[in-house]
What does this fold into?
Amino acid sequence: MNRIVKVARLQANKLDVTFLVPLYILAAVMVISALIVFAIQRGGGDPSSADYVEGARMNMGMVWSLPGFLVYLGVQAVSTTFPFALALGTTRRAFVAGTALANLVQSAYIALVMLALLGIELVTNHWFIGLYVLDTYFLGAGDPLKLFLTAFIGTFLMLSIGGVFGAIWVRFGAKGPTILGLALGLVLAIAIVLLVPYFGEIFAAMTEAKLALGAIAVAIVALLGTWLCMRRTAVR
It folds into this structure.
């Protein structure tokens, strides 16, 4: 357990990247969203109208802003620290477990930050200007628990996916992630072709709990893939 904690601490050694960059990204989304709100209101949009609120709650800025960075963070967490960790005496199993622990900490951090921002947004009646950034349909429509779980699970999923791509890069070189990406794209395309007649039934049966369980399952598969790659990866 001590080794696992040490790996998690190693993964968080770049405090600016781990804890400050997400804040910069969230702040940028809020500024851009505020500019859009000002433009809409100058064009005649009424923040108190039901149509305005309905449209404002469709804001997906917070949903799309972080995944790219989180996948990158997951990639570099594995690819840049693996040789150093093993040189310090860490086992491969402890490395993967410690990285997963670091991902959980990062997920909790981002979820708590977004939860705090949601609280401010609600208390200030949407930042005093009718700005809907956290109180959106895709983040639980103002429900603190739904927002926290969405942010936590989503962050953990992106970090885990990045980790498996980083592990494949370390194991097989630059061609590894490319081949994996193409393979996943092919599987997705085949799945769409086969399932498209049933999309209506699938979407009708889909629930928030099922989506959460699916995301967790994908994250676990990604962690297992990372472990399988790390088992036979030579330290270079």
Q: What stands out?
A: The chain has twelve helices and no strands.
